Write the structure tokens for this entry.
Amino acid sequence: MDAAVETALVAVAQAMRAAVAPWWIIGSAAVVLLGGETAVADIDLLTSERDGRALAARLGVALVASDAHPRFRSKVFARWQRSDRDVEIMGGLMLAEGAGWTALVPATRVAVAVGGETLFVPARHEMIAILGRFGRDKDRVRARLLARCTGAPG
């Protein structure tokens, strides 16, 4: 794992110690944590709305409008800008599916140790499904990459 990504992930784990509800790393960083090799431009942190707001307040990070993407949006969104990797805090992430919006709350939660801290990701099979639900080309590539991983957590 890239040293800058590891440093940022450790900071996320430390920042999330005060979380009340379950939380997960998703996206490219989850793929890496589950044993895949892919670039990590930023870290996607999935939280509850309450924990997302509380984290942003603790970090002094302003809540902003969620990126205007036709497939997903967050009820609470903040970008924790760090020198190693930015962290996108997504509280209450919603996916456009069918005729409406569906909350994305993983059913599985796998602990992964990094730098003496514990991070959580969806299990491999669920992360593959989540990437498929995102529907972007880069996510489909990551899902295929993750499907080929063996022996890693999840």
The mean pLDDT is 92. Strands lie at 24-26, 42-47, 72-80, 86-97, 100-103, 110-114, 117-121.
